[in-house]
């Protein structure tokens, strides 16, 4: 019988270039927010915000750019990815869970798993490797 180690394969760090789109970003988002979960911000057109508590995750923040001349904040959001998202302190997330926003771009387990939305493939420390396709 073969001995398979889960350490041989990771899905962390994959993204699809064609699914990375530029959005307007909510006020207050900064470079240190790169890598956090994003959700739609209904306060403006083509606008994303850090995922709030219970928000559906629509993407992962890839870049932030403050355009001071135009007075706008924009960023690339990966709409499809297999990468880490930070788990909110005190929340329990397991492999196979679906995650939703937990506030400030962090995630928590959804009440009901729906793998058509996303799924957790791996836990690395305080981060979930989430696959969203």
Q: Could you characterize the architecture of this molecule?
A:
The protein has strands spanning 14-15, 20-25, 37-40, 47-50, 59-61, 65-67, 72-78, 81-86, 99-103, 106-109, 119-124, 127-132. Strand 3 (37-40) and strand 4 (47-50) form a beta hairpin. It has 133 residues and is an all-beta fold. It is globular. The protein has no helices and twelve strands. A five-stranded mixed beta barrel has the order 2-4-3-5-7. It has a four-stranded antiparallel sheet with strand order 1-8-12-11, with no helix packed on it. The chain starts with 13 loop residues before the first strand and ends with a strand. The model is unreliable at 1-5 (pLDDT under 50). Helix content is 0%, strand content 42%.
Output the keywords.
globular, disordered N terminus, 133 residues, 5-stranded mixed beta barrel, mainly beta
